[in-house]
Write a structure and sequence with these properties.
Layout (H helix, E strand, L loop, with lengths): L2 H22 L3 E2 H10 L6 H13 L3 E8 L2 E9 L1 H26 L5
Antiparallel strand pairs: 1-3, 2-3
Helix pairs in contact: 1-4
Pfam families: PadR
Protein name: PadR family transcriptional regulator
InterPro entries: Metal_resp_DNA-bind_regulator, Tscrpt_reg_PadR_N, WH-like_DNA-bd_sf, WH_DNA-bd_sf
Length: 112
């Protein structure tokens, strides 16, 4: 078993949460999301991001608007809906619980 496979699965598991967090700060353009995710070492490609954004939009968690660009075609900017904001709040709580639980397990030094 390769550690890289597990690392990829761990990243995929929190990708949706990270995307919602990025969008929660204000209108977000997909390439800006990719840039931030890449900078955070959340290795993501367009082929992963766009289907996820579509799924979140279809679940009524996101909305988007087209904004004219001076350097090319219009851009699609994403925002959270009220439902998306409530969903993100629940994910934040789950994240805190998971971090606490994981830290508890890591810090438990019982001899086996």
């Amino acid at each position: 078993m390769k550690v890289e496979n597990t690392q990829v699965q761990m990243r995929k598991g929190i990708l949706e949460f990270c995307i919602l967090e990025i969008i929660s700060r204000g209108e977000a353009y997909a390439s800006d999301m990719l840039e931030e995710l890449t900078a955070a070492k959340m290795i993501v490609v367009e082929g992963t991001l766009y289907p996820l954004l579509t799924r979140l939009k279809n679940a009524s968690l996101l909305d988007y608007s087209w904004v004219e660009s001076t350097s090319g075609p219009p851009r699609k900017y994403y925002t959270l809906t009220e439902t998306g904001t409530a969903f993100l709040m629940q994910l934040r709580e789950t994240w805190r619980e998971l971090v606490d639980s994981t830290e508890f397990i890591i810090q438990n030094k019982k001899a086996l």
